[in-house]
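The pair is quoted verbatim below.
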Amino acid sequence: MTLLGSHPAVYCSGEQYNPYAIVGIGEERDDSFEGVVRQRDADPVGFLDRFYAERVPPGVTWAGFKFMLGHNIAAFRALAERPDIRIIYVWRENRLAQVASLIKATRTRRWAQQKPDAHIARRIAAKPRQISHRWHEFEMTDYLFQHWLAQAPHRSITLEYRELFAPGFRERICDFLGIAPDRRMKSPLVKQGSNTIADRFEDPRAISTYFREIGHARWLEDEL
């Protein structure tokens, strides 16, 4: 999202339908009752329309925002009825890493980070079955969404998380949008945890035992 937003022809905002806040660009956050409840949750489709009508700066070729599956069903239905919208769908094969990121972000309300600090090394308190609950939800949600996307009229591109860091990704995503790559494209974000996923937890032994038993030992290792 931040990589796309660094292109001068693209306006790409954060999680507009995050349950806890309207997440903008950089440090922009609105977690007020007026913003989250009255302006957005009481009228999710109107909020979507106002985003494109009022928030998008003039002169950009593409505009959009990060939308997580499960954020808002009314907004999803509205987007589904607008086939002119292009969909960049990112999924993550390493469900343990995905759940770790969710738990940490939800507990701290830090949805993204641009500078290294002690928060990165802070470990997560979580039990194996709590993680099992979440990763199966993610797996099922992605499975159902992939079937929906396959028959949707929208132009789309599907990317596994690690592809975002692969050589040639900038050129690939710009080609999908029909714009030329720009040398200034760069994401300012830093990872919010160890690259070795098991090390993100306070009790890595219990987590490791569980995932080895169910055949997903690879999720415990370095993701990138």
Summary: The chain has a mean pLDDT of 89. The chain has nine helices and six strands. The radius of gyration is 18 Å. Residues 81 and 157 are 18 Å apart (CA to CA).
